[in-house]
Design a protein that fits this description.
single chain, 401 residues, alpha+beta, FAD/NAD(P)-binding domain, D-Amino Acid Oxidase, Chain A, domain 2, 2 domains, ten-stranded mixed β-sheet, eight-stranded mixed β-sheet, 18 strands, 32% helix
C-alpha cells in the first residue's frame, strides 16, 4: 500500500536526517519492532530505555510511510465524543482513555526535553467549533461530560468566538491541553536515542515470514536473513490490517496542504491554537514553528492509491476555499500539498496489546485522529507487557473489547 500522495512537507523541510543499514545477517534479540515510523520509534525507545534488547525493521527509509504525511496535531480528544464513548465502553474506560491521551501530550513534551531536540513541539490550545447550530447541543453535552471528568476547558458562545477570531461559528469548546510537533523529526530523534541505548535499526528491510516457536519468534526478511526474538511488536500502522483476520479498522484518505511562510495570521486568536470542527469529516488547522499554516481534511473512503492521487488538486482547492472563508484577512499561498491514508475504529479507540492470531506478538495500532498520543500509550503498555509490569490501562485497548 502506498500510504501517501503528493509532497509531504516534513521530509522536504528536514531532509534525510539519518539513514540506517539494510539487515544483512542473522540476529538474536529480545524484541523486534516491525515499523520505523513514529509508533515504532516510541515503542523502541521505551523498550530500550527499560533495558530491553531491540531490533527495528522497516521496509522503507525511516519515517517515510504515513509518519511523513502526519499533520501531527496532539490532542486528547479521540474521534468519538467523551459523552458518546461513555455509552459505548462505560464511564471508567471512556474517562480514563481521555485522561491517558491528555497525559500523553505532556509526556511527549517531556520526551523532547530528554532527547535534547524540541522536534517542533509547542504546547497549544485547541478550538473545537460547532459546524452548525444543530451541533451546539452535542457540544454542550460534551462540555459537561469533560468537566465532570475533571478536564479543563471553556464553552464559547458565538459572541466569544467572533470576538477572538475572524470567523463566525455558533459555539466552540476551547481546550487548554494540546500541542503540535514535527513527527518526522521526532521519529528520527527517538531512534537515534534508542540506538544509543543499544537498539539496532534497519531500514529497507522487509519482513517476509513470521514463525512462532516455543522460545519466541523467528522473522525471515526478503533477503533471507533470520531474526530470532522473544516477542515481536507490530507497529506497521495502516498496513497492519492485511495481517489480521479480525477487522479492526476502516481506511480513509485525508488531504492537506502547507503554506509558504506567512507569519501571524490576522484573526487567528488564542496564540495560533489548533482548530477543528464537529462536522464529520472535519476540517483541521495548525501553524508551524516557521510561520506556515497547515490545513487538512476533506476525508473520504480509501479505494485506491491512484484515485486518491487524482483527487488531490481538487481537494486542495476546497481546503483553501475553507481557509479563505475563515481567515479573509490572512492570505496564504500553497507550498506543498499531499494526501495520506489513515484508519478509524468503531469506537475511536486504539488497539494495543496481544491477539491470539499472532502468538508472542504485540500490536500498537493507534488508529484515529490522535494517533501519536495513542502511540505513546502503546509504547508504555508494550513495555509493561514485556517486562511483566502490571498495567491496568491495557484492558481499555484490548482486541476483544
Amino acid at each position: 500500500m502506498d500510504l501517501k500522495s503528493g509532497y509531504p512537507f516534513w521530509p522536504i523541510k528536514n531532509g534525510l536526517i539519518q539513514s540506517y543499514p539494510t539487515l544483512a545477517e542473522d540476529l538474536r534479540s529480545d524484541v523486534a519492532v516491525i515499523g520505523g515510523g513514529i509508533t515504532g520509534a516510541l515503542v523502541a525507545y521505551h523498550l530500550a530505555k527499560a533495558g530491553v534488547g531491540v531490533v527495528v525493521l522497516d521496509r522503507r527509509d525511516i519515517a517515510t510511510g504515513s509518519t511523513s504525511a502526519s499533520t501531527a496535531l496532539l490532542q486528547y480528544e479521540v474521534d468519538t465524543h467523551l459523552a458518546d464513548l461513555i455509552g459505548m465502553v462505560g464511564r471508567e474506560h471512556a474517562v480514563r482513555s481521555y485522561h491517558l491521551c491528555l497525559e500523553a501530550i505532556h509526556k511527549i513534551g517531556r520526551l523532547t526535553e530528554e532527547l535534547g531536540d524540541d522536534c517542533g513541539y509547542m504546547p497549544k490550545k485547541s478550538l473545537y467549533v460547532a459546524s452548525t447550530k444543530r451541533d451546539v447541543p452535542a457540544l454542550r453535552d460534551e462540555y459537561e461530560a469533560r468537566r465532570a471528568a475533571g478536564i479543563r476547558l471553556d464553552f464559547l458562545e458565538r459572541s466569544d468566538v467572533t470576538s477572538r477570531f475572524s470567523f463566525d461559528y455558533p459555539a466552540a469548546l476551547l481546550s487548554y491541553d494540546a500541542a503540535q510537533v514535527d513527527a518526522y523529526r521526532l521519529t528520527h530523534a527517538l531512534l537515534r536515542a534508542a540506538a544509543g541505548m543499544g537498539a539496532r535499526v534497519y531500514d529497507r528491510t522487509t519482513v517476509a515470514k513470521y514463525e512462532h516457536e516455543a522460545d519466541g519468534v523467528t522473522l525471515t526478511t526478503d533477503r533471507g536473513c533470520r531474526v530470532h526474538v522473544r516477542r515481536v511488536a507490530v507497529a506497521a500502522g495502516f498496513e497492519t490490517q492485511q495481517y489480521l483476520k479480525q477487522k479492526v479498522v476502516n481506511f480513509k484518505s485525508t488531504y492537506a496542504f502547507i503554506s509558504e511562510p506567512s507569519g501571524p495570521i490576522d484573526g487567528w486568536g488564542e496564540d495560533g491554537c489548533l482548530i477543528w470542527e464537529s462536522a464529520r469529516p472535519y476540517l483541521y488547522m495548525r501553524t508551524t514553528d516557521d510561520g506556515r499554516v497547515l490545513v487538512g481534511g476533506e476525508d473520504d473512503l480509501f479505494d485506491s492509491d491512484a484515485k486518491r492521487d487524482r483527487r488531490l488538486p481538487k481537494k486542495t482547492e476546497r481546503l483553501m476555499k475553507r481557509y479563505n472563508a475563515m481567515f479573509p484577512r490572512g492570505p496564504i499561498e500553497v507550498a506543498y500539498a499531499w494526501a495520506g491514508t489513515f484508519g478509524e475504529t468503531k469506537d475511536g479507540l486504539a488497539y494495543i496489546g496481544e491477539t491470539p492470531e499472532w502468538p508472542n506478538g504485540y500490536f500498537a495500532l493507534g488508529y484515529g485522529g490522535n494517533g501519536i498520543t495513542y502511540s505513546l500509550i502503546a509504547a508504555e503498555i508494550i513495555r509493561d507487557l514485556f517486562t511483566g509490569t502490571p498495567n491496568p490501562d491495557a484492558a481499555i485497548f484490548r482486541f476483544d473489547r
